[in-house]
Write a structure and sequence with these properties.
The complex is a heterodimer of chains A (489) and B (500). Chain A has 489 residues and is an all-alpha fold. Chain A contains 19 helices and 2 strands. A two-stranded antiparallel ribbon of chain A has the order 1-2. In chain A, α1 packs antiparallel against α2. With 500 residues, chain B is mainly α. Chain B has one domain. In chain B, α3 runs parallel beside α5, α6 packs antiparallel against α7 and α17 runs parallel beside α19. The longest helix of chain B is centred in the middle third of the chain and has 31 residues. Chain B is globular. The two termini of chain B are 31 Å apart. Classes of the chains: A mainly alpha (489), B mainly alpha (500). At the A-B interface, β1, α5 and α6 of A face α17, α18 and α20 of B.
Chain lengths: 489, 500
């Protein structure tokens, strides 16, 4: 089949799914079948495209001209395919999980939930396939807007306040900085196409280049660079499947992905490293990385701790992008995948704990490991992968990123990566340790551990699959690197 | 052109003008529906004419139509180029979509025995706005400006269900509008005194050699102030919020989308066609008066909007801010900036038209229009409120909407001039728009409806269809923007080239 058509189908499939979900609102089983079906179909399309890309084929698909010479255009290239594959693949697993979670918690407005979810996935595909910065920006904004109803799903004052901050920061930074950066780029170069080697070289004074970079980096609010990170913890009021897929994978990785796209295809790695315009970004990202790890240490709420951990992990990617070496860019691309698998596992575990025990605070989770062994083993695996212990996938991305820093002889950066890994141990391991090594509290023991058990199967199976994924990817990381290699050559 | 089509430039004004007195005749049968139908047909006729004119102008260049075959500058000339053909399309297009929306809301808001007179006055207002736009004669502009203004005073005074507050609003507008018109005509007097002509092209030729003439300076100052008052540029906007708030819904929609825009068009004509940037005082006014006022307008209007509880008044304050954006585009006086200004004239009409239409739907169902009275209505009136949200996104300037396209060009124009400090100000303005639109959205979707309120039904399709057509336009021209950009760009180029 024609590759262009497949790109179009991949964009449309979740939307058709959304319509189907809307029409089947009254029959929940059919509705959930449609979600799963469109997730499966989407994943098939993405796999096909991934296969094409790994064979070195390119395809582009132009919709129409919005502003003279500025098209809505879609292209497939390795980095985007990787993001698309991870988002669509995890959508299947997460949909299973959503069913278990949403039904287990008897949440309201489930139809709206699944519709917004499908639209968010569709816009993630748009971001992944975007052929120019303009198209990417459009889908970036749609992603923000479509996830807003998910964040405020509960409708409580707390959810409203979280939603307000979510929207305020994401829309604010994207219109306030990113859009200006995009228009500025357009003004300077007359194009916004993602071009290997970048488009800015020779078009801009090196002295003002850091400002343009700053507009982009702070403008991509989804990458959660401090001080524009607080939307992510605020978004944790959402139901856990949303936190899992959107705020550990699709939304935040859209931010990290956009950062990489901008650095690789707008600025160009060589141009950026030769001008030294990103030196400040190395410091800013290092600061975010360490500061948010420290904040994570202080959080007792599990989801809040994971959220700050995500802020920190996103800065790994921004930091790697700021280094602008081939190895660090490859590592950053890989980190999108490894962190996605690890973090979605952790979030699903947090959700499963909530469904089974209604506990959200880490200090209340003593001894739960014995009641919910699968969940907590999966949690441990996810945590190992995030920390970067073999034999789990997380080590490879850290490896490449640290190698990139070593190439530049920036030992300070290597130190940051290492300290942060230690901090990861510090904030993730206590959860596992408490669950397995501390006894259950007295009153729970009294009521008998029968009242406590694993969450429903539909919650537990998905998180076991992703935990397994963390392990399997350890052996296949090289394939991902090979896929990505063309983007830096 | 065949013989008949040749006369379209006059027909587009004469037909609404003559049909107004004919409309009065319906009072004999007290046939309200016929009066409405008559207004609808006239609006659609004007719309078709304007489409024809715009097409013709785009293909064949400008039209010069001589009234009664008297040659200009003695006779009155109707001169149509891309820019006023575009404004004509805007005025008649908004009317063509607003009148179908109007029947039910007018029925609800205006006493039955006044409805026919209402439509008559509406036709006069339409005539006036079309006339101002099409004519190439400066005094003729004044005459039509007065026709449209006088009729809009009457229309506003009718108010929603004879709301007495509409009377003071209309009275304020009457006083200030008359001052504006008087300033305009005094200015014309000065120019006539030294040039002896009222035809705009002729005026433009003759004024070239009079750059140092004090009478020209005085005339220019009077005209610009008069027009700034009519277009509601801060601080001459005070008539606007109350007029838009208390006017009947149909009039709010129509005036908010067109009236100030037509004045801006006349301003562009005088700034760039009659005078032009080669006159020292034009860049001076633009940079030292228009630009600061425009910036203040953006902030005053947006912050003012945040503090409003009445939704129509909130939109009115937002209009004050949006006029600021247009004025910045004009002040840039480069091609891209003017393109942005002309684009935003059109785009803002689509946005505000849609917003006031949604407000009209709310008046129809709820009556009171405070942020409290719409609490929890998002679920009961899903189509109205989703339209309101989409129009709000367009106002904020989210990509794929027309508001985004305007902003894109405005910022590009600012970069072209290198006025970098303006960019954060524009951005802050957009973010303030997020704040005031969100006030409405939160009230509608997140607050519980008061216990004692009777359930509200969605408005009938007759209201929803025009509303959603406008929403569709907001997105269509946001995605396929090359049409409007092409026209605006051509208009901007011709304005700047025309400068002697």
């Amino acid at each position: 089949m024609n590759t262009e058509i497949i790109i179009a189908l991949a964009l449309i499939t979740p939307l058709i799914g959304a319509i189907g979900i809307f029409l089947s609102a009254n029959t929940p089983n059919l509705r959930e079948t449609i979600t799963l079906l469109s997730a499966a179909v989407l994943f098939t399309f993405v796999c096909f495209l991934l296969h094409q890309t790994s064979n070195g084929q390119n395809a582009s698909f132009r919709l129409f001209e919005v502003i003279p010479n500025l098209m809505i255009a879609f292209d497939i290239e390795p980095l985007g395919m990787l993001f698309a594959a991870i988002a669509s693949g995890l959508w299947i697993i997460n949909s299973l999980y959503s069913i278990g979670y949403m039904r287990g918690n008897q949440e309201e407005n489930q139809t709206r939930f699944y519709i917004c979810f499908a639209i968010a996935i569709s816009s993630s595909m748009g971001i992944a396939f975007a052929g120019n910065m303009f198209t990417l920006f459009i889908f970036y904004e749609i992603l923000t807007l479509s996830t807003y109803p998910l964040v405020t799903h509960k409708g409580t004052p707390e959810a409203k306040a979280g939603g307000r901050r979510y929207l305020g920061l994401l829309i604010g930074t994207s219109i306030g900085f990113q859009l200006i950066a995009i228009i500025w780029t357009w003004f300077l170069t007359g194009t916004l196409d993602f071009t290997p080697g970048g488009i800015l070289s020779g078009k801009i004074e090196p002295t003002i280049l850091p400002f343009l970079l700053a507009l982009y980096m702070f403008g991509i609010g989804k990458a959660a660079l401090m001080p524009f990170h607080s939307w992510l913890p605020a978004a944790m009021v959402a139901p856990t499947p949303v936190s899992a897929l959107l705020h550990a994978v699709a939304v935040v990785k859209a931010g990290a992905f956009t950062v990489l796209k901008v650095v690789v295809y707008i600025f160009g790695i060589e141009f950026l490293s030769s001008t030294g315009a990103s030196t400040w970004l190395i410091w800013a990202a290092s600061f975010t990385l360490l500061a948010s790890s420290l904040i994570a240490l202080s959080k007792d709420n599990l989801k809040a701790r994971l959220a700050y951990s995500t802020v920190s992990q996103l800065s790994y990617i921004v930091l790697a992008a700021a280094l602008a070496t081939k190895l660090s860019i490859l590592g950053a691309g890989l980190h999108i995948v490894t962190h996605a698998l690890g973090k979605i596992t952790l979030f699903m575990c947090a959700g499963a704990i909530y469904v089974a025990t209604h506990k959200t605070e880490i200090s209340d989770m003593d001894g739960l490991g014995r009641v919910m062994p699968f969940t907590f083993i999966a949690f441990a695996i996810g945590a190992f992968s995030i920390i970067g212990l073999p034999p789990f996938a997380g080590i490879w991305s850290k490896w490449y990123m640290a190698l990139g820093a070593a190439n530049l002889e920036l030992f300070m950066v290597i130190a940051v990566y290492m300290i942060s890994s230690l901090l990861n141990v510090g904030y993730l391991m206590p959860v596992v340790a408490r669950a397995f090594f501390k006894p259950l509290p007295q009153q729970l023991q009294a009521s008998g551990s029968k009242s406590l058990s694993e969450a429903p199967l539909l919650c537990v199976i998905p998180l076991c699959i992703t935990a397994l994924g963390c392990f399997v990817l350890f052996f296949f990381a090289n394939e991902v690197i090979d896929l990505l290699r063309p983007i830096v050559n | 052109m065949t013989n008949w089509l040749h006369h379209i430039p006059i027909l587009i004004v004469a037909v609404p003008l003559i049909s107004a007195p004919i409309c009065v005749l319906f009072t004999f049968g007290a046939n309200r529906k016929a009066a409405w139908l008559w207004t609808l047909l006239v609006s659609w006729f004007a719309f078709l004419c304007s489409i024809y004119l715009l097409n013709y102008v785009l293909e064949n260049g400008q039209i010069s139509y001589h009234l009664g075959s008297w040659k200009p500058p003695l006779g009155i000339e109707y001169r149509i180029d891309v820019i006023n053909a575009f404004v004509l399309l805007l005025v008649s297009g908004i009317s063509a979509i607003a009148v179908p929306f109007g029947r039910l809301v007018v029925d609800r808001e205006i006493e039955p025995d006044r409805q026919i007179l209402f439509y008559t006055t509406y036709l006069l207002c339409l005539t006036g706005l079309l006339g101002v736009t099409i004519t190439g004669d400066a005094f003729n502009i004044f005459v039509f400006l007065e026709i449209s203004s006088l009729s809009s005073y009457v229309l506003i005074a009718m108010g929603v269900r004879s709301d007495r507050r509409a009377l003071t609003a209309a009275y304020n507008y009457l006083i200030l509008g008359t001052i504006g018109a008087t300033f305009f005509v005094i200015g014309l007097g000065f120019l006539y005194m030294v040039t002896g002509t009222l035809n705009i092209m002729d005026l433009s030729d003759r004024v070239t050699h009079l750059a140092d003439n004090k009478a020209v300076h005085a005339g220019y100052a009077f005209i610009i102030i008069g027009l700034a008052l009519k277009m509601a540029l801060f601080p001459m906007h005070v008539w606007l919020p109350n007029s838009y708030t208390y006017a009947p819904s149909l009039i709010s929609i129509f005036l908010a989308a067109t009236a100030t825009k037509v004045s801006i068009y006349v301003l562009l004509r005088f700034l760039f066609t009659v005078f032009g940037v080669s006159f020292d005082f034009i860049p001076l006014t633009l940079i030292f008066i228009f630009l600061p006022l425009a910036i203040i307008a953006i902030f005053f209007g947006s912050i003012g909007a945040i503090f409003q509880t009445n939704i129509k008044r909130l939109f009115a304050y937002s209009s004050v801010a949006q006029i600021g954006y247009i004025a910045i585009g004009i002040a840039l006086s480069n091609t891209i900036g003017l393109t942005a200004a002309i684009l935003h004239i059109f785009n803002h009409a689509l946005i505000k038209g849609a917003l006031f239409m949604a407000a009209g739907c709310l008046v129809y169902r709820v009556g009171k229009l405070t942020t409290d009275s719409i609490r929890g209505l998002g679920k009961e009136m899903p189509w109205t409120f989703s339209a309101l949200v989409l129009a709000g996104l367009s106002l904020i300037g989210i990509p794929t909407t027309v508001g985004f396209i305007s902003k894109w060009y405005l910022i590009l124009g600012i970069m072209e001039n290198g006025w970098w400090p303006l960019i954060p100000l524009i951005v802050m303005g957009s973010l303030l728009a997020v704040v005031y639109m969100w006030k409405i959205i939160e009230a509608a979707y997140f607050f519980q409806a008061p216990q004692d309120r009777v359930p509200v039904k969605e408005v009938p399709l007759e209201l929803l269809i025009p509303l959603w057509i406008l929403i569709g336009c907001n997105f269509y021209f946001g995605i396929q923007a090359d049409i409007t950009i092409g026209i605006s760009n051509e208009a901007a180029t011709s304005l700047l080239d025309h400068s002697p």
